[in-house]
Amino acid sequence: MALRELVTGLAKAELHLHLEGTLEPELAFALAARNGVSLPYAGVAALRRAYDFADLQSFLDLYYACMAVLRTAEDFRDLAAAYLDRARADGVVRAEVFFDPQEHTARGVPLAEVVAGLSRAAQESVAAGGPQVAFIACAVRHRGPAEALAMVESLEPHVGTVVGLGLDSTERGHPPRDYARAFDAARGLGLRTVAHAGEEGPPAYVWEALDVLGVERVDHGVRCVEDAALVRRLAADGTPLTVCPLSNVRLRVVDDLRDHPLPRLLDAGVRVTLNSDDPAYFGGYVADNYVACAEAFGWSEADLTALARASLDSVLR
Ligand code: HPA
Ligand SMILES: [Zn+2]
């Protein structure tokens, strides 16, 4: 069987996916026209040409700029529905989807409007036999701890549709420990917790995500390979890492996919899952990540099956 058919035929969960990172240029311009918003790019081709990132921050600047086109519940519904269609074709049966509430409320879009669109897309997906969906609201580090806490408090009416709190955006200079109060408040609401750590930030940030924030999964986490004790801790606890290989190449966390620490993490017994992060921007959806890794690392059908299984075993339930 061809590699891609093998991969798409494996039932899998996608656990590290930013909804706003699924905004393809065509949809961005369609929504810009619908809402009378202008984008600082001449058109689809010019926007795609700008996807040449030096690091996380250079990506985030463009990513936040493109979010300006998202204004109504219908926009969020359309964006989520387009992703869920693609995820279904990739064999995704469960998607745990990040979104950044603060980046929308800061532009005057009420949280209830965002959640209404997400909730509709999730219900339609299940009704149509597509992936089951849960949403994880992320606090954006660049807006600081006080705003993060206020955002968590604003989630209260939406608990249920929103099942978890995450932490994303600019990592360097924003240690997880700064967000301890927001994470405690989230647990007080019955939310589950995950955090980005060890993408660009040091292994110390992964330790803090575990020991100070008490997260159940670490998003990225790949810089743990620099600390043998941390790798042993992750393996012993069975803490999942939601790894995003094509993202790590595009944001220059690694120079080449073949240099990626994934094989070392698997050899060390760390529970690794494969995910797409921001697929519209990083050149591939989740199946593309499986295929690229299989080619780079010579993975067998058994290896790929084990990775899909690990993703299903790592969902929040
Ligand atoms: O890879 C990422 N890292 C941090 N924040 C993000 N927001 C979207 N993608 C990312
Ligand atoms: Zn991410």
From TrEMBL:
This protein's record includes keyword Hydrolase: yes
Residue intervals of the Adenosine deaminase domain: 12-313
GO molecular function: adenine deaminase activity; zinc ion binding
Domain of life: Bacteria
Known catalytic reactions: adenine + H2O + H(+) = hypoxanthine + NH4(+)
GO terms under cellular component: cytosol
Broadest EC class assigned to this enzyme: hydrolase
EC number per UniProt: 3.5.4.2
Active site per the UniProt annotation: E199 (proton donor)
Cofactors named for this entry: Zn(2+)
GO BP terms: adenine catabolic process; hypoxanthine salvage; nucleotide metabolic process
Keyword check for Metal-binding: yes
Residue positions binding substrate: D278
Binding locations of Zn(2+): H16, H18, H196, D277
Annotated keywords: Hydrolase, Metal-binding, Nucleotide metabolism, Zinc
Site feature Important for catalytic activity, where: H220
Co-factor binding details: Binds 1 zinc ion per subunit.
Family membership noted in the UniProt record: Belongs to the metallo-dependent hydrolases superfamily. Adenosine and AMP deaminases family. Adenine deaminase type 2 subfamily.
Function per UniProt: Catalyzes the hydrolytic deamination of adenine to hypoxanthine. Plays an important role in the purine salvage pathway and in nitrogen catabolism.
Protein name: Adenine deaminase
UniProt organism field: Nocardioides anomalus
The organism's taxonomic lineage, starting at the top: Bacteria, Bacillati, Actinomycetota, Actinomycetes, Propionibacteriales
